[in-house]
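Entry type: protein chain
Record version: 2
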Amino acid sequence: MREKAKTTTEKQKKTHRGRVWLWIVCVLLVVCGAATWVLYDGGLIANRSAEMGGFVDVPAVVDQKTKADVAVADSTDARIKPACAVIEDTLLASIANDDEVDYRAQDAAAQTYLVLAQYGCPENAQYFADMAARKQAIADGLAAAWGRNDTTMTSIEYLYSDEKICETIENRVMQNINTDAYSYDDFLHNANTYAVLYEYGCKSNKAAYMRAAVRELGVAVALMPTDKMKRDEIVTVVEICKSLGVAEAAHLMLQRLKARGYDMEFLLEMENIIHGIR
């Protein structure tokens, strides 16, 4: 009986000890699971895995890549200016300062502001229009003070001034007159020179140049060996008569050429020119 009771007691102790260890294992599993969940939820395990070459959650990687792409796109957009801003930066660099005394520079600045008002950014259009009016007022004031009313003649004004250019032409072209003319080609050259003076010289001398051209041309035609005249010489006579508005000398020359049997087709062309003079 004693041995049987002793055996039963030992079995009960073993059973109790097994249950205790079972509960201890269960508690440890619960604690480890909770700790693992806390660490993973805080990102510690994921980050550690990435550092050690482990796997990282795919959605997290995609999300980080998307954020990086957005950041690059934002920085690229910040570097690319709108077209209107590029136009403004380029043209504003050429604007003259207010202390520039040349009215032409201020006038150019006004025109530049008008371009900016049209092609610059819309939010700056009114400002540029106002600045254009301001610069134009400065330009007009400077021009009135010592710009457009300046009595000093510029080279361009001299070139296109009737009072100056005609005198320059006369002084230079008159040097081509051969006062010792003897042969027909000398007189023809003089006639052509006087015809140039008649067309481009001073108006007050036109009548004198026309008389001189007709005189020299008449002598040249009278002395011409019509059987040996060249076509360019004939054309010169006709052109002189055309510029002077006289046809008598050219008509006389053509009659003499016809009598000598010159090229009739060419003479007919010259006749048409002469008829156009009349």
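Comment: The two ends are 170 Å apart (CA to CA).
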